[in-house]
Amino acid sequence: LACGEMLRAGVTCFNDMYFFPEASCSAVEQAGMRAAIGIIAIEFPTAYASDADDYLRKGLEVRDAYRENARIGFCMAPHAPYTVSDKTFEKILTLAEQTNIPIHLHVHETRDEIAQSVKEYGLRPLARLQNLGLLSPSVIAAHMVHLTPDEIELCAAQGVNIAHCPVSNLKLASGIAPVAQLLAKGINVGIGTDGTASNNRLDLLNELRIAALLAKGAAMDATALPAHQALAMATLHGAKALGLENEIGSLRIGKAADMIAVDLSSLETSPCYDVASHLVYAAGREHVTHAWVAGQLL
User: Fold this and answer.
1) DSSP 206-247
2) pTM for the complete prediction?
3) Do 112 and 136 meet the contact criterion of CB atoms below 8 Å apart?
4) Most exposed among 13, 109, 174, 242, judged by the fewest C-beta atoms under 10 Å?
5) Cβ neighbours of residue 151 under 8 Å, at least 6 residues apart?
């Protein structure tokens, strides 16, 4: 259902994290989409696994099972600093370097998690990750709502990628990420929806519009996050975060033919003077008419 909803909303590739990654892989395979599936790690037992080592073992087995599928990649996915120990983080860093895959985790989503980290470790989560050697261009940090100027500088210096999930952050009252400041420092910021439990819509066009408007409102600057930059966040920036910018994210000879068609001839989108502006501020997922992945119409 999630794959179908995303395709109808013009999403051809997604990055996922949570339990039972084999189920996600099966759905992606059936739908024909492209995805980076998380090899989740968390310290406490669930119906999926008993401890961090069990999560990693099972996730790596799924990766091995789908090794031949060119559309399914993987990320190491330690859930968050408040649910993963230093020992597990160190193991994940080694595995990520050995397998040459990204690391995807939730970071600085709420003030509470930051306060908890300071109480337990004497450090804010980003500082702890930096001390563990985890901040690099291989990291996809989801949310990143509460950041100091020094932390923004640190992310820029280390090449950290950020997955901005504006609707989830609003629904959970987490706050508003400082997107304008992040982009001004040259940080690679992509767009995410988070899961349906904290969003309800897997709708990237809706996310784009809200991201652009929030950035302007938060920065008190109507020129912040213009339409073309927002579109880049939804396409090339996301591809770069996943290490796939040479395969997807733009239409160029030699890249995969992952693309969508959007009908801008409707009453609501007429007249159209600027396609990028229309895609960000006027169009919705109901205007998406086609989606192709690797040249296959889905």
Assistant:
1) HHHHHHHHHHHHHHT-TTSS-HHHHHHHHTHHHHHHTT-TTT
2) 0.96
3) no
4) 174
5) 108, 124, 126
